[in-house]
Every structure is written in C-alpha cells, then in structure tokens.
Specification:
Number of strands: 6
Strand content: 5-15%
Structural class: alpha/beta
Order of helices and strands: HEHEHEHEHHHHEEHHH
Radius of gyration: 17 Å
C-alpha cells in the first residue's frame, strides 16, 4: 500500500479532490439530503430513477453533494453508486480495475430497479464515472437496463493527463507498477488494453441515448474532445458553446457547474428541455 501513496498524491494534486472527502455510503447507504431514499417511487413525469456514478478519487457523496439535491428538487428518485475501493484509502475510490467496477455498478442498478419497480434507470457519471457505465452496458448486460447515459467530462477514449502519462514510458516498469497498485488509473491511460477493448467495434450500444458534456479547460481528460462519442443517439456538448464565460475545469464541471447541471437535466428529460446558457449559473 505504501507504493500506492505517491500515485494517489500525484492524482490528488492534479484532480484537486476536496480535503473534506469522507467515506461514501454507497448505493445502499442512508438517505442523504433526499437521495439514496429507497422509499422513493418514480413519478409519471420522471419514470426512470437516476443512478449517479462518481469519478476517480471521488466517492458517492463528495462528487454529488450539489447535483443530487438539484435532481431531487426536480422530482427525480436519485441514487449514488460507489465503486473501485482499495484497502486503506477511505473516501478515495474509483481506483480498482474498471471491469470490476462495472460489475459493482451492475449490482447497484439491479438494487435500484428492484426497490423502485422501474424497468430502466438513467445514469449520470463524472469522469471515470461517465465512461465506466459503457463497460457495464457493453459487457455486463446493462444496455437493456439503461435509458440514457449522461457523461460529464468522461474519459471515453483515455487521457494523456495533460502529458503526464508520457512519464510512464520514460521510467522502466512504471506502467506495470501503476497497474498493479491503482488499475483504475492505468486503465484510463490513452492506448491502454482496457480502452482498446471498450472502444473496439464502436462507441455506443443500441437503445441508449448518450450525452457527453465537456469543458475546453479540462486538465485531466486531455485532449478534452477525446471524451466525445461517435454513433447514433449521441449528443456531444461543449459548455463554452452554451456559455462562453464558463471556465470550469475537470472537477468543477462535475461537482458545481450549473450550466452542466442544466444540460444534464435536459438530457434526462429532452421533451421538456430548456436552453442552457450563462443564466443557468444563477438559476
């Protein structure tokens, strides 16, 4: 575990995880500000519960403290999934193998469907959490259980991490060490075996609506356009096209950016969508 600490320290410095992070309750946890409420029954207006999937080094609480209540206040049943835990790192999740994390998401989605009686869920994910559900849908039977995937700053085609991943090729054995200690990080490096398998044969699966929300100032998923998807039923959105003065970086886009929140809500309910713009920042 000691060998993992420098890796986590580097990642924390880059991602700027809030220092107040605490262990997350997971999808079966206690009710938190109205979400993870298993007595919630989806309404006719919002028949699919929403499962939130956090990013790397985040957890089911820290990533969604603002967005989950935002959806609850709009009448959704909302649940936050937790995944990728490693021993000795409470609160900093998403570090385990992504294929295993997708298996955990499969269990969490089934739990939500059983509790709510819904036929499908919608998923909103940030960073790794926007990409990992594609593994679930492609390899774990999730395609028939998901109506829409809304991915905020997702690492869909891997990342160069602002060029830092080049260091892995300069230090002999560095890739093996990273994969052995934090596979959730190494799986997201551009060109990884995981990324090749995930994207082989196309970015999407039939029957799911996809929305990707990105920021040109993303310093973690780089280049930012690698987060975009190709295929039918895909909408790729750059927040600066909606609000030119939006200066969100990777973390803020998925945790506090109200323009991204508004566009995510539009993706969940496209029949009642309203324009997301700079006014969304104060709405």
């Amino acid at each position: 575990m000691r060998s993992l600490l420098p890796v986590v320290a580097l990642a924390v410095a880059v991602v700027a995880v809030p220092g107040t992070a605490t262990a997350a309750p997971g999808v079966a946890g206690t009710v938190s500000r109205g979400w993870n409420d298993y007595s919630c029954k989806p309404s006719a207006a919002h028949p699919r519960p929403v499962v939130l999937v956090h990013g790397t080094l985040e957890n089911a609480t820290t990533n969604w403290w603002a967005f989950a209540p935002y959806l609850v206040n709009r009448g959704y049943c909302v649940y936050s999934s937790d995944y990728g835990k490693l021993p000795g790192l409470p609160g900093f999740h998403g570090l385990g193998p992504i294929a295993k994390s997708a298996e955990k998401l499969a269990v969490d989605v089934d739990t939500v469907l059983a509790a709510t009686g819904a036929e499908k869920v919608d998923i909103v994910g940030h960073s790794q959490g926007g990409m990992m559900p594609r593994q679930y849908m492609k390899f774990n039977g999730g395609a028939k259980k998901v109506g829409a995937l809304v991915a905020i700053a997702p690492s869909n085609h891997g990342t160069t991490l602002s060029g830092l991943t080049r260091l892995l090729d300069l230090v002999p054995g560095a890739r093996d060490v990273l994969h052995g200690t934090a596979p959730g990080l190494s799986d997201q490096v551009v060109g990884s075996d995981f990324m090749k398998r995930l994207n082989e044969g196309g970015d999407t699966v039939p029957g799911v609506r996809y929305t990707v929300i990105a920021t040109r100032y993303d310093e973690v998923v780089t280049p930012y356009a690698t987060g975009f998807l190709s295929g039918p039923d895909v909408r790729n959105v750059l927040v600066q096209d909606l609000c030119p003065i939006d200066i969100s970086l990777h973390l803020t886009l998925g945790t506090i950016d109200r323009v991204a929140f508004h566009e995510a809500a539009n993706a969940l309910d496209p029949d009642h969508a309203t324009p997301a713009n700079c006014a969304s920042m104060v709405s």
